[in-house]
Amino acid sequence: MPNTPQTTTDRTSIASTTASTTAAKPNAHAPRTPLSRRTDSIGVRTFAVSVSAIIATSIAIGYAATRLARSALLEQQQTMFEATLASRATSIEQTLATMRGQVTTLAADPSTHAALTAFSAGFATAADDARKAGHDPAHALAHITEHHDRELAKRFRDGGLNWSGGGAIVPEGANARALQELYIASNPNAVGSKHKLDRADLDTPYDRAHAEHHPRIRTMLETFGFYDVFLFNAQGDAVYTVFKETDFASSATHGCYAESNLSKLVRTALATDAGARDAAGAPNATGAPNAAGARDATDALACDFAPYTASYGAQAGFIAAPIVENGKPIGVVAVQVPIDRLDAMCGLAAGLGETGEVFLVGPGGSNRTNLRLVKSPTVGTLSPSAAFAAMAMKGESGFAHTVINDRESMAAYRPFDFLGQKW
Q1: Which residues contact 334 (CB under 8 A, 6 or more apart)?
Q2: What is the pLDDT of residue 406?
Q3: Which pTM value belongs to this model?
């Protein structure tokens, strides 16, 4: 008999679905379903085949025995799903907490302060320094636009973004353009490999700073598995990124990226105290409370996933922390959260059978991770378990019988805490 949903006070939620006994093959035409500090739910889903095999056996051994066997099987499945869900939720929360700790530690590291100081100084004089070195930055806009039109237009369109010409995503300031020309347009490495360049050829103060600090930060990124690492100065300029995508040298306060989730998070992190952070205009950017229940001004913050233009419209989430000197923020360090690590933890086959799924669902019912049995990306798409996710975001946990994509299924769900945000 169906088990009634159970309610707990856990901060993470998982939804799982399964049917009676035997797992069915995945529905190849099933709709696709799409992290920081919001309420998302983790869902485990297992579709089962028809119950005719159980019924046929039951006729031979008696109806009562069939019902008892089926009830015992359902109880076993419920226990298994709930245990799998709890285990995955704990593992993912611990991984995210580790990322947050890494960013907080990085922001306090003296080498990060030194890098920010050097990059900020080089950024402030980049155009004049390039001119003194014999490179005319007046042609930067045309050169960058030509590069973007040639190399990025198709990538943007493939990501579902409108392409209004390369000039639409070029920063406004002369210093920013000088650096984008040297480290993006004139970078001999292909798109996606721009991070391999240790320094441009002009030997400007920025080039020397890049040669000194970039290899170390790049190695740190590769070690921890972040998608990208950013340094912003006190004015909100992205004075450094590892991968040198189009958000390099952009502004978090104006221009084409000012309304991105990263820019809003940076503006919040630059606020000097919790009250100022709340007024900085970054929705869903939250930091974990300290032991006394208050949020430390130096804690790392996180924002929910959203389409990010510099990543060609792919879903992106970020963690950021202020870089503080003498009690005041002088900049921000931020990292882009690697979705593939979350996918890997959700998609472990153990405990899921052939058709089981564990996934995160955020506000609005959209997926925050990709489904392991669907080949195309599902992050950002509507989840077929959105109704269960909505209950989980209210703090409920449970187990239910349902129908998903025309298949009899079972679902277990529970709340999930992403660095203070409910999923």
Answers
A1: 103, 229, 230, 232, 262, 265, 266, 269, 318, 319, 320, 321
A2: 76
A3: 0.78
